[in-house]
Amino acid sequence: MRLCFSALISMVVITHGQSLGTSARTFEIDYDHNCYRKDGQPFRYISGSIHYARIPRFYWKDRLLKMKMAGLDAIYTYVPWNFHEPKPGIYEFSGDHDIVSFLQLANEIGLLVILRAGPYICGEWDMGGLPAWLLAKESIVLRSSDTDYLHAVDNWMGVLLPKIQLLLYQNGGPVIAVQVENEYGSYFACDYNYLRHLLKLFRHHLGDEVVLFTTDGSGLPYVKCGTIQGLYTTVDFGPGTNVTDAFFVQRHSEPKGPLINSEFYTGWLDHWGERHSVVATERVVSTLNEILAHGANVNMYMFIGGTNFGYWNGANTPYEPQPTSYDYDAPLSEAGDLTEKYFAIREVIKKYKKIPEGPVPPTTPKYAYGEISMEKAKTVIEALDVLARYGAIKSVYPLTFDQMKQYFGFVLYRTTIPKNYTEPAPLSSLYDGIRDRAYVTVNGVLQGILERNKMHTINITGTEGAHLDLLVESMGRVNFGRFNNDFKGLLTNLTLNGDILANWTMYPLDIDSAIIGELLSKASALKTDNIPSPAFYKGSLAIPEGIPDLPQDTFIKFTGWTKGQIWINGFNLGRYWPARGPQVTLYVPVHILTTSQVNNITVLELEHSPCETGKCVVEFVDKPILNENPGYVKEELSFNKGSVL
Q1: How would residue 22 be classed by pLDDT, with cut points 50, 70 and 90?
Q2: Where are the beta strands (DSSP E) in 296-387?
Q3: What are the contacts of 55-59 at 24+ separation with CB within 8 A?
């Protein structure tokens, strides 16, 4: 260790682009001197995590430049499989999904890349990045040697890895190392044949020169099941950890080679109903300084968290979904703002390496556009003809989302009340079968809510033949642990007053396409009123004239609204839930706004809106609110994923 570390201190700083066209580019592990070697020279990276899928392509360059100017050598980024293959054999690699352009941009800026290729990533992302269509075989064992699972993995990696092979460091690209799987030692399967299969698969597509590695928690049980020969072992741990003890765990698997913390936690994740996680800057910089003093390589998770746009947030068990914001209390905020933590980390890095000269790109300006009047458009039931564009599915008993090939969003389940219930009768979900939240209406009038792990029974009234509807919402699939085979919808039968309900008609809803196609205005023209029921509300934002540099980023606030989803100009910003908190505002990046015409705002309110009794507005503000109305106060943070999640 000391030989390599002293060489690191005294060597002339060499950028990773200098050897292009002059000599062979190499990146390898030097086991004799306990370090990496890049182009033959001792090398230690200081890195930060950024997830291209959580940041609009419009802002990739801004965020990467800020990371470069902090003194980082490299970035870590996950590849979410489900982000790129939404249906079997259907691939998305353009726009915000263009991973090749993202990696090329990092290369142009002068950042190396450590790629976390999966197939499983965790990352507080829906189903840990695994596509929900894998659940078509209900008995499938994910992250194992199950042949159906491996077949899908082989097909996916056969598409992804050839793209990465062209971007490897030795081929002129930025990718110096590739992670295989993720924190496998925290998974129940402990299937070494699965890891061997992945090792062979990655070597087949990427060759023998690239560094392949694993990451696990800094405890011996995690590295026991998460590592095999041929994949270099790294560990992860957060501020306040005994650094010597944590690296001792890595040394248990790797007696020689570079010390690496692949996830040094700069903050922590959030859940709905908990307080926003904040980790003191002093704790972060103290442990970071200690890691670097050990001569270790480090990746800060996260350096910028970004946003779970649309339906991409994950969940933990017992079931706790994450909010739309993935701010993470990181050095760069969700909106890319420079923070006190950013500059404090930069000062620590200065002690160990020369950082780039010149100004740091500034925080992007934000603008408070003010209140926007909203108007009720249609209830979900009134809009069924345009929302369920593929028609209805009939079954004696309810089907799951996955059986209907509806992998995100909402399904409306409908049956009829079999006899008169003038007195309240219990509507019950057997065995906690709601996945994840059901908004119950009788003839369009909201009766109550059934929710996974929280509310299994409500009382309803109704007449024989009345429509009993359950609008069921998937709130994000489990991303960590053994239960990420997270089926959605109604998993079990429902009973009314003890009798099983049958003869269901199910409507998978394609809300995004209806909004993008401006079809809601063409929905059935039934009478709308202020009776509480899941409904759409519409409004428009005109960017003010005569003010320079508009439009700008902003945040949207939902005073008086309860829970729902919002789209601006057809872009799905994500879920709002101020009634539960802690997140109150949603980030609105500038690229989705336009000055050439009014900006269309569509809100799906699932419970109660302020329009029913008072001021029917949403408000654009210039500051985020991420820590308000928490329903639960979190205990002191722990940074060991294996024990927390």
Answers
A1: very low
A2: 297-301, 315-316, 320-321, 370-373, 375-379
A3: 55/304, 55/306, 55/307, 55/336, 56/96, 56/589, 56/591, 56/592, 57/95, 57/96, 57/98, 57/101, 57/102, 58/589, 58/590, 58/591, 59/336, 59/364, 59/589, 59/591
Give the integer Cα–Cα distance in Å for 330 and 332: 5
CB 566 within 8 A of CB 556: yes
Residue 91 in contact with residue 84, Cβ under 8 Å? yes
Q: Please work out, in degrees rounded to the nearest 5, the angle formed at the alpha carbon of residue 332 by the alpha carbons of 238 and 62.
A: 135
Q: Which candidate in 124, 181, 254, 263 is catalytic? A: 263
Q: Which of these, 421, 386, 381, lies nearest to 532 by C-alpha position?
A: 381
Checking if the pLDDT of 638 tops 70, the result is no
Reported confidence tier of residue 631, pLDDT bands at 50, 70, 90 = low
Q: Residue 458: beta bridge partners?
A: 427
612 is catalytic: no
Backbone dihedral angles phi then psi of residue 265, each to the nearest 5 degrees: -80, 115
Q: Which of 464, 433, 462 is nearest to 447 (CA)?
A: 462
Q: Which two tokens stand for residue 7?
A: 């060489």
- Give the C-alpha separation, 115 to 205, whole Å: 14
List the structure tokens of 73.
Answer: 């050598």
Distance between CA atoms of residues 284 and 264, nearest Å = 9
* C-beta separation of 547 from 427 below 8 A: no
> Average pLDDT, stretch 433-450?
96
C-alpha triplet 550, 553, 558: angle, nearest 5° = 120
Q: By the 8 A CB rule, do 356 and 68 touch?
A: yes
Structure tokens at 307: 């946003």
Please check whether residue 619 is in contact with residue 559, taking contact to mean a CB–CB distance below 8 angstroms: yes
Can you tell me the mean pLDDT for 427-443?
A: 96
Rounded to an integer, what distance in angstroms lies between the CA atom of residue 263 and that of residue 639?
A: 10
Which of the following is catalytic: 124, 183, 274, 607?
A: 183
pLDDT band at 301 (very low <50, low <70, confident <90, very high): very high
- CB-CB contact of 94 with 52 (8 Å): no
Helices marked H in 11-109 — which ranges?
60-69, 81-84, 99-109
Pick from 195, 348, 334: which is nearest to 264 by CA?
348
Using alpha carbons, select from 422, 396, 599, 398 the residue that is nearest to residue 491: 398
Whole-structure pTM value: 0.94
As a whole number, mean pLDDT of residues 324-344 equals 98
> Is 263 marked active-site?
yes
Strand stretches in 317-398, DSSP E: 320-321, 370-373, 375-379, 393-395
Which three-class secondary structure state does DSSP give residue 543? coil
